[in-house]
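User: Is it possible to get a 3D structure for a protein together with its bound compound? The compound here is 6-O-phosphono-alpha-D-fructofuranose. I've pasted both below.
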Amino acid sequence: MQENLAAPVGTALDRFIHQKQEQFPFATGELSQLLRDIALAGKIVNREINRAGLINITGAYGAQNIQGEEQQKLDVIANVRFIRALRNGGEVCGIISEEEDELIDTGKPEGKYVVAIDPLDGSSNIDVNVSIGTIFSVYRRVSEQGTPVEARDVLQIGHKQVAAGYLLYGSSTMLVYTTGYGVHGFTYEPSLGEFFLSNPNMQIPATSNIYSCNEGNARDFPAEITAYLDFCKDQKYSARYIGSLVADFHRNLLKGGIYLYPSTKKAPNGKLRLMYECNALAYIVEQAGGKATDGKRRILDIPPTELHQRCPLYIGSTEMVERVEGFLKNA
Ligand code: P6P
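Assistant: Yes, that's possible. Here is the predicted structure of the complex:
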């Protein structure tokens, strides 16, 4: 009876990271500290998102990013918060961000890692109170430690990631990440200011009846994708599309499903960015037993040539992604 009165709060993120670090015999703690730095910035951004409507930080910032997209005030705030946390943490020598034209040298040449980040994805949803997220990838630098970061440190192929994750600022705020040993989800308890393990060893169902796609672009899709979407309708699948990649991805990770952002005539390489959207989610979904492709290649095998390059994305339950690959085989 006494036990029920004081239910345990569960494993805090810090303790979990420490426990897992003990499994890496040569771990010296830098990656663990980097994950803590990201979690800290996530808590700060979460606080600012939750009160945005009260302190006049919703709406457009009045500038465009290199993508030509209108920056929202919270895009800029989140970008500053994550860059500052990673710079101050000292583990990161370089950062690429959706909100920054060029590679950022953190001025920490001893940092062993580089980070690619979308500080706030789905920001068109901020003002309408729909879930938004942060997406990040972590790579070990390839240039010599102690020297300034170089482009080759960040332009690394996706399967070289040492960690990847996302924060989802939704009905609850979650941090989901992998370091190559499974996918683990943590839920934020704001009254304690802590993330607690809520979804250990996440695995995506092999198939489902959920598909996520902006069919408003369907007239421009490759014919094979239009045929696949007709197949989904014939199967009476459920269409679920939030307009926030992290939210759509997270639902599909839990329930199964596929997210599709095909190439279109207007965007022949698709809309989503390889380095700080597709690679991170592809690493996570593969660790959870799913699949991610650009229609021809495994996302994690696409060699990057520029910081903000785009690629089509088909990601989610293995059987569903493989069916799309089947439709595209004749493309
Ligand atoms: P569309 C948000 O801008 C984003 O990058 C993803 O979060 C989202 O899934 C997609 O773009 C929405 O794009 O063209 O459907 O509005």
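The chain is about 30% helix and 25% strand. The mean pLDDT is 93.
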